[in-house]
Design goal:
Helices cover 88% and strands 0% of the residues. It is built from three helices and no strands. It has one domain. Keywords: Membrane, Transmembrane, Transmembrane helix.
Length: 76
């Protein structure tokens, strides 16, 4: 069962990748939301920062998943 071992190897990534992506967006939104009532550019800055963080997290997750898939294929 090579796919089962590969999915078991990918399992520690899974609780890391879906909730903290949304929590970083929510954290930056809460961090810059009181300032957005005074200055609106800070809200757009925080949105762009949170989007770039979530994009980098998803890119690193896809790279690690493809590496683990290639490792499991080469092992099997």
């Amino acid at each position: 069962m090579p796919y089962h071992s590969g999915s078991k190897r990918r399992c520690p990534w899974h609780p890391w990748y879906s909730p903290p992506g949304y929590t970083t967006i929510f954290f930056f939104f809460l961090l810059f939301y009181p300032n957005s009532l005074l200055n609106s550019p800070l809200l757009s800055i925080s949105i762009s920062i949170s989007i770039s963080i979530s994009i980098s997290i998803s890119i690193s997750i896809s790279i690690s998943i493809s590496i683990s898939i290639s490792i499991s294929i080469s092992i099997s």
